[in-house]
Design goal:
The chain is mainly beta. The protein contains no helices and eleven strands. Strands 2, 4, 5, 6, 9, 10 and 11 form a seven-stranded mixed beta sheet that branches. A four-stranded antiparallel beta sheet has the order 1-3-8-7, with no helix packed on it.
């Protein structure tokens, strides 16, 4: 059993930066690939970024590539999402999630554990 708790969201102006954190409980964090998803009001939850177990491989949605960076610190049981050059369209609730799978991790259905989300609002 893994529990995930996101933090670090808030209100920022366009062009600003935020760093989200996702803290995991339990001893099995290092066995899971970790992803970030986001969901705007009335919209479908969409993939943002994923990082593999060791942290050596990452993949990003085209909409955030070059602006966002995902990382993890397995010693701290924490995954991060550094968000730079934020745009109003980045406004959403951001969720972290863990998966025991190796492939296809842009898909919500492949994740085993989800956090409750943290709000990110980017003003124009």
């Amino acid at each position: 059993q893994v529990q995930l708790v996101e933090s670090g969201g808030g209100l920022v102006q366009a062009g600003g930066s935020l760093r989200l954190s996702c803290a995991a409980s339990g001893r099995t964090f290092t066995r899971y690939a970790m992803g970030w998803f986001r969901q705007a009001p009335g919209k479908e939850r969409e993939f943002v970024a994923v990082i593999n177990v060791s942290g050596g491989t990452t993949y990003y949605a085209d909409s955030v590539k070059g602006r966002f960076t995902i990382s993890r610190d397995n010693a701290k049981n924490t995954v991060y999402l550094q968000m730079n050059s934020l745009k109003p369209e980045d406004t959403a609730v951001y969720y972290c999630a863990g998966s025991s799978r190796l492939y296809g991790l842009t898909q919500r259905s492949l994740y085993d554990y989800w956090g409750q989300g943290t709000q990110v609002t980017v003003s124009s």
